[in-house]
Design goal:
This protein has 754 residues and is of the alpha+beta class. The protein has 32 helices and 20 strands.
Length: 754
């Protein structure tokens, strides 16, 4: 059975099975401008006249261009405008849909569009125009920049994404004439970016169809096999579905409650996704179909829920109230799963007609309902997420990084938590108190030091659950911790932390670059020239060196050395050659000249690590070096200095691949903080074992910063856990391990190594 005919197929005995809207059956319906005009009956005649002018302009611009199918290219903009007309978008949006490819493909300028059709329409078209005309280093960078431009335009005017999604939907419906590889690439992009955006904005009809079409093009054989299986199962379930429908209709009739009952069938992609995630066979997927109950007002939602719970037994833990607490995209419904007469679970969704419109159309529902309310509601629906795009842009100028943050925020699930003043906030599944703090305000996040969940202190990496009440503790002198990036989930928190650290990183990277260049110069028999601007000879030397390296200032050169973008040994050799060319021999005479600084001890020849280096120096999490370990430093390109233990397998592989980026490092004599070591513990299961282990660690004067344990540990006699211990050095760690081993609950304790 073909995709589109399956998507709109009905469960026998039910009415109005929801599914993706089918593509037009005839080319005339899809491509005729007269057919488009018939769909614009909701607009004034003056607006239709302006739309006709935009059509003529687009038709002339695309004259001589054809699609892969051989049809004139103008048929595509007309079809996109038709989809926008189904949402009853305004004249500006319809005009922009007709001209959305004019700037990109036909050389039309924004100025020309402003003169012909005024600035608002031109801004919409500009937001939709990709940046293919500019030069980028990689195709991925070009794609990321295009997404950034589109998403930022969307944040200013949500009509941009509605037109873009209509454009993508029509392209997906008509991709059969493209090459196989191109179809798969576009389908993958659609599944990763456009479908989640549609879901995030509540456009569930488009979301489901984009997923279904992407699945069809990415895995055509799997799609075909599932389509046949679902068709066969639909026939087997006919009697059960008819019986449930009769029972439900009778129950509502006896309760004198007028409702509309719709059948709902899972899409092939959602069935496939569930089979993959839960490792199920098709026969084990029990909730392929369900029912929607459309009622007249809000109280009837809860009334209908009571009627259904009296009819069939509800499954415990399977009730969700999205009416009282809507999803971030505005979705509202009551969900309950009931046990059918044959023992199979059946999901019911209760909602009003207005809720149903928002559930299917999302932000587009506000144009459909604009006679009852202001279209500004479209901007308000999901406005917090749209505004967060602008906030992320303020801290993130790199397009690829921006897209990474946005992908993080396109989450399908959410948890709903409360502030101490009982305000509800939606966060992605897996969010932590740090995400919550940044959602409140960036200053709260930057100065966060601790958190309480339901009145109890918890680690900042704790995953929040729906219903939690979160209280954030701040301190004036606190600042973001680089380790937070390993567990925060929202794009806003990630971008704010990175922005703060990048500003801090400049100064710290300069200091690190200063140390590393001093070390490299010592290997050449030179001391580091003075950075005093009053010393004309040294200043001229530094200026020549910076100019050679492509930097405007000496500080920029030192920062790039600290970040690994310039190699200190190469810069040092260049300095030695410069001195030699000037007739100055790099010998002991230079080392004693007043214009050269001799603060760094020549005997060391190493970058010393004492724990105060900040974000420019990181201890590798794969081996977690602590004082007393033999260590070496890897200067990653743009990542600063990463310190590994000498025996780290990850470090050895990096050395084999990129040996020139390794430098000598050592531990300083005075350490400014404790260091984390990863410890494995095999223990006997029983009451109080965690308390015994915590007591043993505490008696060794160490701290536990994190505990991890396998999910099935409670079902076995022994269990294995991983601890992160904050210790001073190797001797302190050895003492903590000995203390752990003496505990009666511990069978074995060891330091985890990669």
């Amino acid at each position: 059975m073909g995709l589109r005919s399956f998507a709109t197929a009905h469960i026998p005995g039910l009415t109005g099975l929801a599914g993706p809207k089918a593509a037009p059956d005839t080319a005339a319906e899809a491509s005729s401008f007269d057919a488009l005009v018939d769909r614009l009956h909701y607009l004034p005649k003056a607006d239709v006249k302006r739309i006709r002018e935009a059509y003529k302009f687009a038709d002339e611009a695309h004259l001589g261009q054809f699609r892969a199918s051989g049809e004139p290219y103008i048929t595509h903009p007309i079809a996109v405008a038709g989809l926008c007309a189904d949402w009853r978008l305004d004249a500006q949006a319809i005009m922009a849909a007709l001209m959305h490819d004019a700037m990109e493909d036909c050389g039309v300028t924004k100025t020309e569009l402003i003169e012909r059709f005024e600035a608002p329409t031109a801004e919409l078209v500009d937001g939709l125009t990709k940046l293919d005309k500019l030069q980028f280093s990689t195709r991925e960078e070009s794609q990321a920049e295009s997404f950034r431009k589109m998403l930022l335009a969307m944040a200013r005017d949500v009509r941009v994404i509605l037109i873009k999604l209509a454009d993508r939907l029509h392209n997906m419906r008509t991709m059969q004439h493209m090459a196989f590889d191109k179809r798969r690439r576009i389908a993958r992009e659609t599944l990763d970016i456009y479908a989640p955006i549609a879901h995030r904005l509540g456009l569930n009809e488009i979301y489901r169809e984009l997923q279904e079409l992407s699945f069809q093009y990415i895995h055509p054989w799997r799609h075909g096999a599932l389509a046949k299986a679902v068709t066969k199962a639909r026939g087997h379930r006919r009697d059960l579905v008819s019986r449930i429908e009769r029972d439900v209709q009778k129950a509502f009739s006896e309760a004198n409650l007028r409702v509309e009952i719709q059948g709902r069938e899972k899409t092939l992609f959602s069935i496939y996704k569930k089979m993959r995630e839960k490792h199920l066979s098709f026969a084990q997927v029990s909730d392929i179909f369900g029912f929607r109950v459309i009622v007249q007002d809000l109280p009837q939602c809860y009334w209908s829920l009571g009627v259904l719970h009296q009819l069939y037994k509800p499954q415990p833990g399977r009730f969700k109230d999205y009416v009282a607490i809507p999803k971030p995209n505005g979705y509202q419904s009551l969900h309950t799963t009931l046990v059918s007469p044959l023992g199979t679970p059946v999901e019911f969704q209760m909602r009003t007609e207005a809720m149903h419109m928002v559930a299917e159309k999302g932000v587009a529902a506000h144009w459909l309902y604009k006679s009852k309310g202001d279209a500004k509601g479209a901007q308000q629906l999901g406005s917090r997420w749209l505004q967060s795009l602008l906030d992320i842009q303020d801290e993130t100028r790199d397009a690829t990084e921006f897209l990474e943050h946005v992908k993080i925020d396109l989450f399908p699930d959410a948890v709903y938590v409360f502030t101490p003043k009982s305000k509800i906030m939606a966060l992605p599944k897996g969010a932590t108190p740090v995400d919550f703090a940044y959602a409140i305000h960036s200053d709260v996040g930057d100065h966060c030091v601790a958190a309480k969940v339901n009145g109890e202190p918890v680690p900042l990496r704790t995953e929040l659950r729906s219903g939690d009440v979160i209280e954030v503790v701040t301190a004036a002198g606190a600042r973001p911790n680089p380790a937070w990036l390993s567990f925060v989930r929202t794009g806003r928190a990630r971008s704010k932390i990175r922005h703060f650290l990048k500003n801090l990183e400049q100064e710290e990277s300069r200091e690190l670059g200063h140390k590393m260049l001093a070390q490299a110069l010592r290997a050449e028999g030179l001391a580091l020239p003075s950075l005093d601007p009053e010393d004309e000879i040294a200043a001229a030397l530094w200026q020549d060196l910076a100019r050679w390296a492509g930097n405007r200032q000496v500080d920029e050169l030192l920062v790039e050395i600290g970040l690994g973008r310039k190699i200190a040994t190469i810069v040092a050799k260049k300095l030695a050659r410069t001195l030699s060319e000037q007739g100055q021999r790099p010998d002991a005479v230079l080392l004693t000249m007043g214009r050269f600084a001799t603060d760094d001890a020549p005997s060391q020849g190493q970058v010393l690590i004492d724990g105060s280096e900040g974000a420019s120096v990181r201890l590798a999490t794969c081996c977690r070096p602590i004082p007393g370990d033999d260590i070496k430093g890897y200067l990653g390109r743009g990542e600063g200095l990463v310190v590994h233990t000498a025996e780290c397998s990850v470090g050895r592989r990096l050395f084999q691949r990129d040996s020139e980026h390794w430098i000598a490092v050592g531990w300083g004599e005075e350490l400014s903080r404790s260091f984390e070591a990863e410890v494995g513990v095999l223990m006997r299961n029983g009451k109080g074992v965690l308390a015994q282990i915590a007591t043993a660690v505490s008696s060794a004067e160490a701290d536990i910063t994190h505990i991890a344990m396998s999910d099935d540990s409670q079902q076995r006699e022994t269990a294995e856990m991983t601890l992160l211990l904050a210790v001073r050095d190797r001797l302190h760690l050895a003492d903590a391990l000995r203390t752990l081993k003496r505990s009666s609950a511990v069978m074995r304790a060891w330091r985890v190594k990669p």
